[in-house]
């Protein structure tokens, strides 16, 4: 089932999510809802808090739904290694219409449970590393805005405040 995506400012997006204790049918249903919501929105990643569930589950799919084998499900992810740096424009489904250049590690290693509850270690670089770091940040209550220099963050939050006052956020 497709779910509404929370926007910047909702308290759930700014708090650390709880670890998943067991892969129950409810968690599997949550993953299905996230997959559908992400693909309808044509996103390449989605974290459970973005649809109102403060749990450590996130998805990454660089094909945006075109290739089912590209879907990565990360449960209780832990980034154990980061290396290098990249700077690219980035967006977020919780910050529609807003993009900014965000520093990210070039390469990382993440350990996470997959959908079957098996522990996996994934090494990623480039765009995939960026997308994984973005989603893992969500699970720690961090949005890409929080990674910007204060002057840029301020400009964007001011824009959001204006949209909110106009009832458009
Ligand atoms: Zn995001």
Short structural description:
This protein has helices spanning 25-40, 126-139, 150-165; strands spanning 45-47, 57-60, 72-83, 86-90, 100-104, 107-113, 119-125. The protein is of the alpha+beta class and 169 residues long.
The structure class reads alpha+beta
Indicate the overall shape: globular
If strands are numbered along the chain, what order do they take across the biggest sheet? 1-2-3-6-7
Q: How far apart are the first and last residues' alpha carbons, in Å?
A: 23 Å
Mean pLDDT figure: 97
In terms of per-residue confidence, which ranges show pLDDT below 50 for 5 or more consecutive residues?
none
Radius of gyration: 15 Å
Which molecules other than protein and nucleic acid are bound?
zinc ion
Please give the largest β-sheet. 5 strands, antiparallel
Helix content: 25-40%
CATH superfamily: Peptide deformylase
Annotation field: number of helices: 3
Number of domains: 1
- The share of residues in extended strands comes to 25-35%
Instruction: Give me the strand/helix succession.
Output: HEEEEEEEHH
Q: Give the total of beta strands.
A: 7
According to CATH, the fold-level topology is Peptide Deformylase
User: What's the CATH class, please?
Assistant: Alpha Beta
CATH architecture: Alpha-Beta Complex
